[in-house]
Amino acid sequence: MQKTSLGTAADPAYNFNYYTGSNTVGDIVPPMFSPYQDHWGYFNGLPQIWNMISFYVPTSADGIPSLINVFYYPYEKIISDPMNYRKVVDKMASNGCIKSIEYPTKGVLPFQYEQNTAVDNNGTPIVVGGVRVNKTTIFDAIDHTKDVVTEYKYNKEDGSTSGWGAGYDPLIYSNITPLRIYKCGSSNVPASLSTYGILNGFSKVVESVYAAGNSTIQIIGAVGSYVAAIAAEIIINRLIYLFQADWKDYTLTEKFINPVNSNVVMPLQYSRVQVSAISATGNNGKIIYEFTSKDNFGLNRPNMPFPYSDEQRYCYWFSGLPKVISIFDNNNQLVNKTVNEYNYNSNNYLNQNFVSQKWSPSMKNFDCASKISSWELTSTNLNIAHSLYYPYFGRTELTETKEYTYKNNVAIINSSTKYCYSPGNYQVKQVLSSNSKNEQLETNVYYPFDYNNIPDLQTLIDKNMVIAPVSS
Description:
Blueprint: E1 15-18, H1 47-50, H2 67-80, H3 82-85, E2 98-102, E3 108-119, E4 125-138, E5 148-153, E6 163-164, E7 173-182, H4 203-212, E8 220-221, E9 232-240, E10 247-256, E11 269-270, E12 272-279, E13 282-291, H5 294-297, E14 322-328, E15 334-348, E16 356-361, E17 364-366, E18 384-389, E19 392-407, E20 410-421, E21 428-434, E22 440-444, H6 455-462
Parallel strand pairs: 7-17
Antiparallel strand pairs: 1-2, 2-3, 3-4, 4-5, 5-12, 6-11, 7-10, 8-9, 9-10, 12-13, 13-14, 14-15, 15-19, 16-18, 19-20, 20-21, 21-22
């Protein structure tokens, strides 16, 4: 990257280098839309996982790659054994990430990564998708003894991972529903089967199973625009033969490799990060950052059951805020600490104008003709599962910041700053601070609605311009 301007020489360039993998098969920057992914969507296409010498795609009888097989091959394996085929490959996600920055002065800043970790909804530590920076080194391009190394650790005080959120969702989303298949004509195959979204070519598989009376079938398909990401495995276990001659009942198990409620998948966040500075002379101290997390405010929906709605699972404005910042010297002695306290505000907006509903069938029929117009799509229909949910809204207010200065691990100086907020616009209205001598300082902030009968300020109010301070 180089900056140039008219009439002058170009500035020296910055060079950016990226991880591109090794020469081994599969250790590459992944291609677009690759189906070889771990549970979190990161590439994991190694031969030892997929039992392939190369990225082999099964072909049809004429040797031409089949579109169905392109998607069927990886998805069939993912569905049948998700713990193996959707597992994380250590640091594979670093391919494509920045490796180093070379400065115009010839200095270099390289980056090293490690695999992300978190805990699942049972509190068990697990490896999750993606990577995090664990080390950077500033090299002046002259003398490595002067390198400045920064190390990052994402652990709690007890050494366990501080990651949370990403491990809450299952590897496979599944649902079991009754299935009724109607006979249509001499073939005994529902005439409208293909119109329900079954991929072309699978109707004969269904026909043979239905006619022969086998108990199990697998159908791998793609849904909508998620062609490279979503597949379904349908296992039909025959229950009983009914007396009626025109249908048969089965149990239908649908499995999806990608989250059905993809809009509300829990993100990965860390509640505690330690940043250590190291030089050739040894430890130069460290800073420990602690952030707000589910331990401070809880979750609305840790797990999302069927029918997998898009209900908000947590209040995002609560998380990731700096809670405690502790600075230690090279002897591991605490020298300074900043503590932030917050007021968490959240409301479930129970207004019928903003209600949402997720529908999903609790029973499915493959019939000779579409009957959607005659279906009773109401909450009273036992064949339709539904979930009502309302949006959450709110805010997080910083109420107080406390500063402590330590000597020999004893606080010798402390100060405090408190914040009060206006109910009219939720902006800071008053700041109360005290220093180590217990001297008090008060600052008040005034907004347009704090004044009466002033035309210009009334114009601001009329235009809803109420967050700009007028005076203090």
